[in-house]
Amino acid sequence: MTTLSRQTHGRPKAPVRILHLGIGNFTRAHQAWYTEHAADAADWGIAAFTGRSAAIAETLRPSEGLYQLCTATPEGDEVEVISCLSEVHAADDLDAWRGYFADPQLAIVTSTITEAGYLRDAEGNLDASNQQLTADLTALAADPRADVSTAPAKFVAGLLARREAGAGDITFCPCDNIPENGPMVKRLVSQAAERVDPSLVEWIEQHVGVVTTMVDRITPRTTDEDRERVASETGVEDPALVVTEPFSEWVLCGDFTAGRPQWETKGARFVDDVAPHEARKLTLLNGSHSLMAYAGSIRGHETVYEAISDETVLGWVNDFWDDAVKHLELPAQELADYREALLARYRNPRIKHLLAQIAGDGSQKVLIRHVPTIKASLAQGEVAEGATRAVAAWVLHLRGAGAPVTDARAEEVLALVQGDEDTAVHRVLGHLGIDDGRIFDSVRRQMAEIQA
Ligand SMILES: NC(=O)c1ccc[n+]([C@@H]2O[C@H](COP(=O)([O-])OP(=O)(O)OC[C@H]3O[C@@H](n4cnc5c(N)ncnc54)[C@H](O)[C@@H]3O)[C@@H](O)[C@H]2O)c1
Ligand SMILES: O=P(O)(O)OC[C@@H](O)[C@@H](O)[C@H](O)[C@H](O)CO
Question: How far does the centroid of ligand 2 lie from the alpha carbon of residue 68, in Å?
């Protein structure tokens, strides 16, 4: 067995021009893969920071950022070494963080910190009730070099350092599953800046660009079995291995004012309007994922592959898609092709995507993935039964059925489902902004069906 090293693999470090927050599995299968294969990759290194725990930075340290990416096709593994992570830092390395922001070479800030990591309230504004965030912003207002831990505060700390250094324009390119994620980040960063130093808000207007992205590549958590299998196939022991699927899609909208890698080399698309692509992916893929995570786990399944192999769950997924496509603004054939491709992806037996992983943070997901279809149908006088079933399954999940509840807002959403089922459903529907008698009846009936 060997280990990865820049010297033996002949992989020099590219200069850091991208800073990434949240170096989990997904970014290493997606944005890093596009950067690795960009025609101008030699010019674009990434400095990656962990979101919270330092673990993956420690794991990547011996290999100086090198890791293996295994594409698990139905036929077998295709393994490559990714080398574009020029530097990897723990979340609390604020000196390094400020140093990159102060460097005029830095052009792009990307992030994958989960939907919950941006600390938004129900209206999508900065969550003023979050005590850690408030403490961070107060600390930064007193001392621009204060130690902070929340993502919005870190972005402000970095921008303060950049303004002070006169380092020029920079573009934020968030890569989490959130609609209009570019404007979302700009709004949060500006609101956070307002509380720290109002003069920074205008500087942000002039110097910070945002790009909105739709990102797609199913990347489950790596297992010990994955690491053992790939080690025996390659002769390389890699604790930082990432396993992903063959499919990948990246659609971006906006200007990279300080430049960008040629991500189109691997098929990234730059469009004028990303909204229809976002709605397609977040609804059809992520919506069916969450439906399977709640309803499928209640039926005893552990993975997407198992759930989609169950005819009943497959029927529920198709019901949801039938409702959802009525409200998506893309040609019918394109949507039909996308559905077919999704089924093939879910049926890849070599991708073991745990429903319990997908079930996490439903408080952030159901509103994005199912509620728009329910509201759009209601506006036409119809009940989208395929989508209300996901709400029914989520209520059951919160009440203890299926996958365990892990949610950044667990206290708030668990409080909704206390008491008898009727009361719980009314509270959840009120919380989702869909407390309508017809939706209530549908959800109550479907809760019984799912449990049966
Ligand atoms: N895994 C996928 O298939 C996939 C596909 C498309 C998009 N995404 C997006 O990427 C995100 C991350 O997925 P992943 O598979 O890399 O997960 P992961 O668990 O491997 O990594 C999550 C990262 O987010 C950070 N994080 C979590 N909570 C945070 C917080 N409150 N503040 C700051 N950082 C925080 C963690 O420290 C970690 O670095 C998803 O939530 C989703 O929005 C994932
Ligand atoms: O990553 P999350 O937690 O936003 O959602 C779970 C899955 O639906 C998601 O990771 C998909 O696999 C991904 O969005 C596919 O591109």
Answer: 21
Q: What SS3 class is residue 30?
A: coil
Q: Which of 27, 69, 114 to mutate to test the pocket of ligand 1 (most atoms within 8 A of CB)?
A: 114
Q: Structure tokens of 319?
A: 């019901």
Indicate the burial class of 437 (C-beta count within 10 angstroms; 0-12, 13-18, 19 or more): exposed
Per-residue confidence (pLDDT) for residue 236, from 0 to 100: 97
pTM reported for the whole predicted model: 0.97
Both tokens of 80, joined, read 């490559």
Q: Which ligand lies nearest the alpha carbon of 247?
A: 2
Rounded Cα gap, residues 133 and 258, in angstroms: 29
Contacts 24+ apart (CB under 8 A), 310-318: 316/291, 316/386, 316/389, 317/288, 317/291, 317/292, 318/386
Residue with CA closest to ligand 2 atom 15? 218
Mean pLDDT of the chain: 97
How far does residue 114's CA lie from ligand 1's centre (Å)?
4
426 conformational bin, left if phi > 0, alpha if psi -120 to 50, beta if neither: alpha
Our answer on whether the CB atom of 360 is closer than 6 Å to any ligand 1 atom is no
Kindly state if the Cβ of 25 falls inside 6 Å of ligand 1: yes
Q: Does residue 113 have its Cβ closer than 6 Å to ligand 1?
A: yes
For residue 59, the surrounding DSSP H or E stretch is: helix 55-60
Q: Which of 348, 394, 335 is nearest to 367 (CA)?
A: 394
Residue 9 C-alpha to ligand 2 middle, in angstroms?
32
As a whole number of angstroms, the distance between CA 57 and CA 237 comes to 17
pLDDT 10s digits, 309-318 = 999 999 999 9
Residue nearest to atom 4 of ligand 2 (CA): 177
Maximum Cα–Cα distance for the chain, whole Å?
A: 66
> Is residue 122 pLDDT above 90, yes or no?
no
Classify strands 67-73 and 76-82 as parallel, antiparallel or unpaired.
Answer: antiparallel
Nearest CA to ligand 2 atom 10: 218
The pLDDT value given to residue 262: 98
User: Which ligand places an atom closest to the C-alpha of 57?
Assistant: 1
- The SS3 assignment for 269 reads strand
Q: Evaluate whether 214 touches 274 at the Cβ level (below 8 Å).
A: yes
State the helix-helix crossing angle for 311-325 and 371-379, rounded to 10 degrees: 50
* ipTM metric: 0.99
Question: H/E element holding 110?
Answer: strand 108-111
Written as six digits, the tokens of 347 are 């049926």
Ligand 2 in contact with 218 (CB < 6 A)?
A: yes
